[in-house]
Amino acid sequence: MMDLISCYSQYAVQVSESSSCSSYTPANSCIVSPNLIPSTQTAVACLYKTTLSTGDQHFITVTWHRNATTQGLQITSGHEPTTLFRLNTHSGLFRKKKGSKLFEFNDSKFEIHYDLSSAQYGAGVDPVEGYYVVIIIDSELGLLIGDMTEESTVKKLKAHKQIGKFCLISRKEHFSGNTLYSTKAQFSDTGNWHDILIRCTGENEGLKYPVLQVSIDKRVVIRVKRLHWNFRGNQTIFLDGLLVDLMWDAHDWFFNPDTRSESGSGRAVFMFRTRSGLDSRLWLEEKTVKSDDDQKKGFSFLVYATKS
Fold first, then answer.
1. Which of 28, 264, 265, 271 is the most buried (most CB within 10 A)?
2. Considering only CA atoms, which of 158, 162, 140, 172 is closest in space to residue 57?
3. If 0-12 CB within 10 Å is exposed, 13-18 middle and 19+ buried, where does residue 186 land?
4. What's the pTM value of the predicted model, to 2 decimals?
């Protein structure tokens, strides 16, 4: 698949008024038959930006993954990610699910403390409760995720370490299976969690052409007809007081299948990107603008969808 920014710059197709649904679309118009089973989530990668008191910045990616034989997490760092830590937590294997690791990377001292021994998982691959992961960078608490913030080990680390600033920049979810993708997303720290349903229908459902439909909280926000011709495009929606650019690239579903994947099919990408209400530019135009304003750069939520 070609570079996502380049493909939108060259081939973006804006959905017309007639092919997209307004915010007043009836709530029950996107209800999916209970016989349809959503695709399987295989990995979630969360990118965090950490700023220490010295002004040093670190970009840390925490990736949760699961397949038929393995389950666990991987932590990488840097713009060109280097693996710092890997853990297999599959219940069928005797693995240490609680511990710590100390090492040096790029002239910085890292400490990773984790406890996944009581982690509870929902439908996704990342735990929803009963865990923590703490990363110490140069004696500062650089990242803390999980709900066990009152656990004794975490309390001691917070009490004896200076706490840096960290924020979630993007979340990427990988799915494999059919063309029905169900997930949840929060687009701001104070915003609500929203149910997101992405569905592509086709000839096997009585249609003469493929149709893409994206619903948020059971309301259709876009409906793209003849997806095999409108395989790339964008639409702006309004959510939680934010402008959110919704973009899709389904080119490889139709014209460039990835024969290397297990399913023998290509991969589509769906991106939700927040931006400032005062900023009229699409996110792809920001590549020409130099700015350190994290609010303007926004938060990105991506769905990578491989269909069988």
1. 271
2. 140
3. middle
4. 0.80
